[in-house]
């Protein structure tokens, strides 16, 4: 590591730039001004006028609830499994199963920005009185101060469009079944308990719309075949889907209490973000009762209990589901983890018979602190009461390269006389091996078998209870080609099984090197060297470097990652090509070299170069963002017949040559426009240039390159100017 500054003379000498010309200060100042102005014009032509509040990532991080940076459904699509659930049905007095398909989101035409033309106000349609109307079409806005009453008829209701901020926390809001209600972009609807807990109409919530349950219970309840399609934000104390109703979430649902999916084939599908409870209080719950059906395709966090306790339950995870405790005590055929399940404390399972199992499809993963197979554990029922399990059947079936990882203790207590016939335990059922990994695997009771290991399964642990017998019954049963040679633990095989399961958004990984994760103490700076025109590539890779404060902020560590520019350029006084040459001495690097910006077939391109790191005294600020912004970056430009050093500028609200990102940002390949690398997609599948949206302040998160919030119609109009 280089810990001194290369002198200006040495830096310029490397570049072959000595000249006998002495520049007057006035000429250099004017030359720099001309270069900056030319660059700014090209920048504005390429991306548009910058938002006046844009600090280019060097300011405070911003977060807007409806534009939260979280993983989306698409992030898991390439990694998740594809196992499908089944449902029970009765035929000729016998129970059978058949494939079940979850419903899809409503058509995009239902999520509106404006009231359709020609629609009259609620006041006009109701005759300006308090009585309301049976059916018809109207719009509601804050100018209406009375109650709402749309009572419908047996087979049809009305249509209601809601815009603006509408507070019914102290007014009546009754809308009959068979009525369609459209909460427009930016609209807010606040409901008191009697209205929020009896939603029997169909509700379509556009992006940035809000539904807020006010009152003592603060419970939102869908009932009587109601359908709620949410692309906005819902805030409540608890949320219930009941009586064959449907909740399809593409936005956010935030509740301090439970999410309850009741009997009679009620359905909840999550393509957005659901959070119940808080990290401090752990009051959240997910309860699936009877034939309730749940599918998570994106992000769902339960700060509390997840409870699955009905034979008719369907629980499918295609995204990342996180919970404090996970309890499965039923015989459902459709408790399926196709992606990533994280359990902060205890994963508990006890099933009635061999028809039920917890299934992990190929590539899926479970990460839990402790595992209780059969018992002994105390679980919660639907009403929050304690239920004790002291051993019994359990089964976990795992596809190829699935991983069940227990960071502390896995307790195996099947203790069932049918363990040999039914294989209660862990089984690899794919064409390739799966892995059960734990720190310690123990038995708390001796019985007719604690666990069965079957199929293509490896068991990897620090300690594992030894084989033994209860009468004629072994503690460990081996089935379908699995044997003691598949166990790697003290007293069994040494080391770890020779299998690699890659770390993905769906799997914590086994035997591989985890990918780099963002270091919150590091800022990456990407730069343009002022040479672009409006028709140039704007790849922001002319120099890429990381900044970190060290030694109590008294020093700065700078790591040069890439240099796609072919002009002499310095960072904190160090010429970047010279430093890359110093740590890669045998490559023939010159100022004409493009370094670590991928191979373009150019003889001056170098890939796989070792990063160049140096440390300097901190004279630029007290925070890493302040320091990263103020580190001088200079480029040597030919102005007319003269050569001058020009400093890259980064000012709030003005065209910039420097942008701050996190250190997991993947910079552009050579001659790849930054808008082509980073595109954003709206709900209709249309793509928009991500960097342009960031420049104009349309996407207001500093993490614009990994933005996962909705691209709304309002944002599109802001982009198009229409």
Content of β-strand:
35-45%
Structural class by SSE content: mainly beta
Helix content: 10-25%
List segments where confidence is low: pLDDT < 50 over at least 5 consecutive residues.
Answer: 2-13, 17-23, 63-70
- Given the structure, what is the number of helices? 11
Protein name: Lipoprotein
Organism: Xylanibacter ruminicola (Prevotella ruminicola)
Structure description:
The chain has a domain of 210 residues. It has eleven helices and 54 strands.
Could you list some keywords that capture this structure?
disordered N terminus, 18-stranded parallel beta sheet, 15-stranded parallel beta sheet, mainly beta, 722 residues
Annotate the secondary structure layout:
Elements: H1 8-15, H2 25-47, H3 73-77, E1 86-91, E2 94-99, H4 122-125, E3 137-140, E4 148-150, E5 159-162, E6 165-168, E7 173-175, E8 180-183, E9 188-191, H5 193-196, E10 202-205, E11 210-213, E12 219-222, E13 227-230, E14 233-236, E15 238-241, E16 246-249, E17 252-255, E18 258-261, E19 267-270, E20 273-276, E21 284-288, E22 293-296, E23 299-308, E24 314-317, E25 320-328, E26 334-337, E27 340-349, E28 358-360, E29 365-373, E30 375-380, E31 386-390, E32 395-398, E33 403-412, H6 419-422, E34 425-428, E35 434-442, E36 451-455, E37 457-464, E38 469-470, E39 473-474, E40 476-479, E41 487-490, E42 522-527, E43 543-550, E44 555-562, E45 569-571, E46 574-575, H7 576-583, E47 594-595, E48 605-606, E49 612-617, H8 624-630, E50 633-639, E51 642-647, E52 658-662, H9 674-677, E53 679-681, E54 687-689, H10 690-695, H11 713-720
């Amino acid at each position: 590591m280089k810990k001194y500054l290369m002198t200006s003379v040495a830096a310029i000498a490397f570049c072959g730039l000595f000249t006998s010309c002495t520049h007057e200060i006035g000429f250099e100042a004017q030359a720099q001004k001309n270069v900056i102005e030319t660059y700014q014009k090209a920048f504005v032509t390429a991306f548009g006028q910058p938002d006046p509040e844009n600090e280019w990532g060097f300011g405070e991080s911003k977060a807007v609830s409806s534009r939260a940076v979280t993983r989306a459904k698409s992030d898991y699509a390439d990694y998740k499994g594809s196992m499908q659930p089944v449902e029970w049905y009765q035929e000729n007095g016998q129970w059978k199963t058949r494939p079940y398909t979850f419903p899809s989101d409503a058509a995009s035409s239902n999520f509106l920005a404006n009231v359709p033309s020609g629609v009259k106000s609620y006041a006009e349609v109701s005759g300006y009185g308090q009585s309301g109307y049976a059916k018809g079409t109207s719009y509601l806005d804050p100018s209406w101060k009375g109650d709402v009453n749309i009572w419908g008829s047996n087979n049809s209701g009305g249509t209601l469009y809601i815009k603006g901020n509408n507070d019914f926390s102290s007014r009546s809001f009754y809308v009959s079944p068979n009525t369609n209600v459209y909460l427009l972009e930016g609209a807010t609807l606040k409901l008191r308990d009697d209205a929020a807990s009896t939603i029997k109409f169909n509700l379509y919530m556009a992006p940035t719309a809000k539904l807020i349950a006010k009152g003592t219970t603060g419970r939102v309840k869908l009932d009587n075949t109601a359908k709620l399609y949410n692309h906005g934000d819902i805030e409540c104390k608890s949320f219930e889907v009941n009586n064959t109703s449907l909740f399809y979430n593409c936005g956010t649902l935030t509740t301090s209490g439970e999410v309850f999916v009741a009997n009679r084939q009620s359905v909840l599908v999550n393509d957005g973000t659901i959070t119940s409870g808080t990290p401090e209080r752990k009051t959240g719950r997910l309860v699936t009762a009877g034939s309730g059906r749940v599918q998570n395709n994106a992000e769902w966090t339960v700060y509390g209990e997840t409870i699955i306790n009905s034979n008719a339950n369907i629980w499918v995870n295609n995204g990342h589901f996180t919970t404090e405790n996970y309890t499965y005590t039923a015989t459902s055929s459709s408790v399926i983890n196709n992606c990533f399940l994280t359990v902060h404390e205890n994963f508990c399972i006890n099933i009635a018979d061999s028809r039920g199992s917890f299934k992990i499809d190929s590539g899926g993963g479970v990460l839990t602190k402790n595992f209780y197979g059969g018992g002994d554990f105390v679980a919660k029922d639907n009403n929050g009461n304690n239920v004790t399990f002291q051993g019994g059947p359990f089964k976990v079936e795992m596809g190829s390269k699935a991983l069940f990882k227990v960071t502390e203790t896995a307790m195996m207590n099947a203790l069932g006389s049918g363990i040999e016939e039914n294989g209660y335990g862990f089984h690899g059922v794919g064409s390739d091996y799966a892995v059960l990994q734990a720190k310690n695997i123990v038995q708390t009771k001796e019985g007719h078998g604690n666990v069965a290991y079957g199929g293509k399964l490896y068991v990897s642990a620090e300690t594992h209870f030894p084989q033994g017998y209860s009468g004629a019954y072994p503690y460990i049963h081996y089935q379908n080609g699995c044997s003691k040679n598949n166990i790697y633990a003290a007293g069994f095989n040494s080391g770890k099984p020779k299998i690699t399961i890659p770390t993905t958004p769906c799997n914590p990984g086994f035997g591989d090197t985890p990918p780099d994760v963002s270091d919150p103490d590091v800022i990456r700076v990407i730069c343009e060297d002022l040479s672009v025109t409006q028709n140039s590539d704007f790849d922001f890779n002319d120099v890429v470097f990381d900044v970190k404060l060290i030694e109590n902020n008294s020093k700065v560590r700078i790591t040069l990652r890439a240099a796609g520019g072919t002009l002499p350029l310095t960072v904190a006084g160090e010429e970047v090509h010279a430093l890359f040459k110093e740590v890669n001495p045998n490559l023939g690097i010159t100022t004409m070299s493009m370094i670590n910006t991928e191979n373009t077939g150019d003889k001056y391109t170098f890939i796989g170069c070792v990063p160049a790191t140096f440390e300097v005294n901190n004279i630029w600020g007290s925070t890493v963002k302040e320091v990263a912004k103020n580190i001088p970056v200079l480029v040597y430009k030919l102005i007319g017949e003269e050569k001058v050093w020009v400093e890259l500028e980064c000012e709030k609200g003005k065209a910039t040559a420097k942008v701050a990102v996190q250190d997991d940002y993947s910079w552009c390949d050579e001659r790849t426009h930054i808008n082509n690398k980073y595109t954003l997609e709206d709900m209709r599948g249309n793509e928009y240039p991500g960097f342009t949206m960031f420049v104009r302040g349309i996407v207001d998160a500093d993490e614009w390159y990994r933005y996962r919030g909705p691209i709304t119609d309002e944002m599109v109009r802001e982009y198009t100017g229409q």
